[in-house]
Design a protein that fits this description.
mainly alpha, single chain, 216 residues
């Protein structure tokens, strides 16, 4: 692990371009929340913590070391899709959601997937497909494809989390009891899939390490 970190430069370890982009997003959030008079301290904290978690999942050394160790890889996925996404959703002001929902141009393309069951299957399907060895190898060797897939997975995670945390109560389609079953089903699907893919993904990561550095 120490050899891997020492062989990589600052850009590979810390992804400064992502850091700059996230800082710009955080600055825009502050400016827009003040202009729209929606700057609530609680939501601001949620949003900023979500930005930090997303950076840990996508841009910190955790992202690089996650290509070598399964445990760190799953921690990276947790930061990006199970911590950052719900925090970001909770941090967005309700007025912004209402404006987006009223915008037909934005909502119309999402109508086909704006369903709790579809969102559940979509995220878990993409999550599982991401860890298929052949797909994982292809994505790791193409930064453009990998970044695109990450964004798609992030959107799918947002759809899935929307029906769990219900950031806009008026748009909630799941009663409390059904939401509990929804959370349970989601956790069950992910747990089973991760367990079945553990050995394959570990072998895949070792192969990538050998390909990139010529040694274990």
């Amino acid at each position: 692990m120490e050899t891997l970190l020492s062989d990589l430069g600052f850009r590979a370890l810390w992804t400064p371009e992502l850091l700059v982009m996230l800082l710009i997003v955080a600055l825009l959030y502050i400016v827009l929340s003040r202009k729209t008079n929606t700057n609530e301290l609680k939501k601001t904290i949620f949003f900023m913590l979500g930005i930090i978690a997303l950076y840990f999942g996508w841009g910190s050394p955790l992202y690089v070391t996650g290509h070598v160790m399964m445990t760190l890889h799953m921690l990276q996925m947790v930061c990006a899709y199970f911590i950052a996404v719900p925090l970001l959703l909770l941090g967005i002001p309700t007025k912004w959601y209402e404006a987006i929902i009223q915008s037909k141009l934005v909502i119309k393309p999402l109508r086909m997937v704006w369903n709790p069951i579809v969102a559940l299957l979509l995220f878990n399907g993409l999550f599982s497909f991401y860890h298929v060895p052949a797909m994982f190898d292809t994505l790791m060797l193409s930064p453009v494809l990998h970044s695109s897939y990450q964004w798609i997975l992030l959107i799918a995670a947002a759809l899935m989390w929307w029906f769990i945390i219900s950031p806009v109560p008026s748009s909630n389609k799941l009663p409390d009891l059904r939401r509990i079953f929804y959370i349970f089903a989601n956790g069950l699907l992910i747990t089973q899939r991760v367990h079945s893919l553990y050995s394959l993904l570990q072998q895949c990561m070792r192969s990538i390490l050998i390909l990139l550095f010529g040694r274990m």
